[in-house]
Backbone:
């Protein structure tokens, strides 16, 4: 029985493997993300060019745009018989105490290749909160991705190079209750960025996170920090960053005033 081909579906008239793969990719993406006709056409073209599988996680749709993944880039390098990949940490550009790492990756397409170089950096301010503490590995992955894209002429950006946390779209988005948009939720309207900035300051200057949060809440005039508005937290982060850079000892003295008072046990 003949199936009616929908608009945007690749036409598998030639019977070539990439045409069959394009058809499968569009079907899978329609089911997973509910893609538009324009996105289906773009996916078909990407499949013809890169021969990557959406079902295998080689390509992803993030906020309406297609991105290649680390797995997809490795698949391309394997198919094109990449000779090797070398990564080196750029120590002079790193700052381990605050979680900042920079890597250089070199991809060798053949034994005589001089190599294609790519750099990748990561710190708590430009990675998802889900991978905090793994900035070194993220930086290395980003460097490898850029080097592979240079080596094989891939203009499509990779998901791992994004400096923010991709949000799920379409049917895959979990059914969660929408939090109240009262402007005071510390996780809304850009607050994760402010939180990351504050965490960066705490790690850089080796401060007690609990005491900093207590001081921040007091500064914002709230019982707990999560009740503060975005504007209040922005004001505190700006004030705190300037103060701790000028006089860390004074900041420590101020933070110590928020330490819980220990009651003496009387006999």
Residues:
């Amino acid at each position: 029985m003949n199936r009616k081909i929908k608009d945007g579906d690749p036409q598998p008239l030639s019977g070539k493997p990439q045409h069959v793969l394009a058809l499968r990719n569009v079907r899978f993406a329609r089911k997973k993300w509910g893609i538009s006709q324009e996105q289906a056409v773009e996916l078909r073209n990407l499949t013809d060019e890169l021969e990557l599988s959406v079902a295998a996680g080689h390509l992803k749709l993030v906020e309406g745009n297609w991105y290649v993944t680390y797995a997809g880039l490795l698949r391309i390098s394997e198919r094109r018989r990449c000779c090797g990949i070398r990564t080196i940490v750029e120590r002079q550009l790193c700052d381990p105490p605050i979680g900042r790492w920079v890597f250089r990756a070199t991809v060798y397409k053949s034994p005589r290749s001089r190599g294609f170089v790519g750099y990748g950096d990561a710190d708590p301010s430009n990675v998802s909160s889900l991978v905090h503490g793994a900035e070194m590995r993220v930086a290395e992955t980003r460097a490898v991705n850029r080097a592979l894209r240079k080596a094989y002429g891939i203009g499509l950006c990779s998901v791992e190079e994004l400096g923010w946390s991709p949000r799920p779209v379409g049917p895959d988005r979990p059914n969660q209750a929408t939090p109240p948009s009262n402007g005071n939720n510390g996780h809304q309207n850009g607050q994760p960025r402010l939180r990351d900035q504050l965490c960066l300051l705490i790690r850089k200057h080796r401060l007690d996170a609990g005491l900093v949060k207590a001081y921040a809440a007091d500064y914002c005039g709230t019982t707990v920090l999560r009740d503060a508005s975005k504007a209040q937290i922005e004001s505190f982060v700006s004030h705190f960053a300037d103060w701790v850079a000028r006089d860390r000892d004074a900041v420590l003295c101020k933070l110590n005033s928020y330490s819980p008072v220990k009651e003496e046990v009387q006999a």
Observations:
- The first strand starts at residue 59 and ends at 62.
